[in-house]
Amino acid sequence: MAAKLTNNQIAWRAAQDIHDGAYVNLGIGFPEKVAQYQPPGREAIFHTENGILNFGEAPPSGDEDWDLINAGKRAVTLKPGSAFFHHADSFAMVRGGHLDVAILGAYEVAENGDLANWSTGPKGVPAVGGAMDLIHGAKRVAVITDHVTKDGRPKLLKRCTLPLTGVGCVTRIYTSLAVIDIEGGRFILREKLPALSFDEVQAVTGAELHIAGTVADLIVPEL
Amino acid sequence: MDKTVANLATAVAGIGDGMTVMIGGFGGAGSPIELIHALIDRFLATGHPKDLTVINNNAGNGHVGLAALIEAGMVRKLICSFPRSADPVVFTDLYLAGKIELELVPQGTLAERIRAGGAGIPAFYTPTSYGTDLARGKPVAEFDGRPYVQERWLKADVALVKAEVADSQGNLTYRAAARNFNPLMCMAAAETVVQASRVVPAGGIDPEAVITPGIFVQKVVEVADAQQEEDLNRANAVYPGVA
């Protein structure tokens, strides 16, 4: 396989679809990067499950306040207009449909919108956190992920094989190769790296890709 | 009315074998480390309390606080959403050895079950977990054309909570994101025990600023220089006697 996007570049692409003033929850780990790439002139308001709206980036090392953390237990800062609240209110924001966007990581996404991102099976310790709540509440649920697993197997499948986080919840996937929408139980290829042919993207995708209208070039800055 | 107690040992004296204990906090933020350590001290001295069921978002980190409570062998079952942390070795080893029971609950469902317990609502429906392994065996019903999973309330014998300021009547404020599960757990336990960084006389908190009204609180103990789990873990602290 030729070049693919870095995680920073995938996060950059996902950030371009977040509108000014959107209320956004970013999953812990990789999705947190999306906050770094908001387009100039737009400011989203970030929500964290543990009870902060409108938090900002990490403080300098040594300035951490451990009562001021995000869902990933990392120290954050506050922006003007932030708010604290308890967990029941936090998840009222989530399930009540008040968030505009949730961007999550994935082990697998299926063409019917099913997501698997919390358990790799019976071995090890299961942990779910807020993922199962987030996928039901946000107006738009997007996934950012490498297009394939570390050993090269497709992560975009006809049906998930791992335990589900939720059914029919994902509407857009930003991968290292493409931007794909899920509509009517099908993967719709919206953008792909210009260096790749349709067939090359299809070859590493575990379900049929469809085209509706044009497929745009996926062009991102060096990051 | 004065709900203050003189020391940590008195504060946790009501916790007995087999009880269900809610412990506030999300990771280290809002975790009542000193109350937990007082409970461990009693166990190390007397062998009680043991066989506890603990409700917390996490399963402890490192070898202090909740992790130390588990490491001491006092916990039979954990109800939580995310039993992973930077250093989850205590819980992980016991869990993989089959020596501790885990009930995994999605985080929003955990919060709402606790809120429901405190609010007298025995069950509710949520879209969360529908179609997943975590909904297995739970009733499903359709409302306005969408499926929802029935969840039951959660209540506890005792809640251990960390607050910023408490007044003598048990009215509480919290600090920043240390609030998290604490106000919910105050409502859902038969006895709520609070460690506060500062205890003031009645009238010392502006009623407009009260987050948890005192009706939900039974005992208050002042811990002026409360430790942060994160700081202890960065110093590789191990609570003495548990390892």
Q: How would you explain this protein's 3D organization?
A:
The complex is a heterodimer of chains A (223) and B (243). Chain A has a single domain, classed as Glutaconate Coenzyme A-transferase, CATH 3.40.1080. Chain A has 4 helices and 14 strands. Chain A has helices at 7-15, 87-95, 131-137, 198-203, and strands at residues 23-26, 45-48, 52-56, 77-84, 101-104, 108-110, 115-116, 140-145, 156-157, 172-175, 178-183, 186-192, 209-210, 216-217. In chain A, the strands form 2 sheets. In chain A, strands 1, 2, 3, 4, 5, 8, 10, 11, 12, 13 and 14 form an 11-stranded mixed sheet that branches. Chain A has a 3-stranded mixed sheet with strand order 7-6-9, with no helix packed on it. Chain B has one domain (8-121, 154-234): Glutaconate Coenzyme A-transferase (3-Layer(aba) Sandwich). Chain B has helices at 8-11, 33-46, 65-71, 89-96, 107-119, 182-188, 229-234; strands at residues 20-23, 52-55, 75-80, 101-104, 123-126, 140-143, 146-152, 156-167, 172-173, 189-200, 219-222. In chain B, strands 1, 2, 3, 4, 8, 9, 10 and 11 form an 8-stranded mixed sheet that branches. In chain B, strands 5-7-6 form a 3-stranded antiparallel sheet. Chain B is globular, with a radius of gyration of 18 Å. In chain B, 56% of the residues are buried. The chains are: A alpha/beta (223), B alpha/beta (243). At the A-B interface, helix 2 and helix 3 of A face helix 4, helix 5, helix 6 and helix 7 of B.
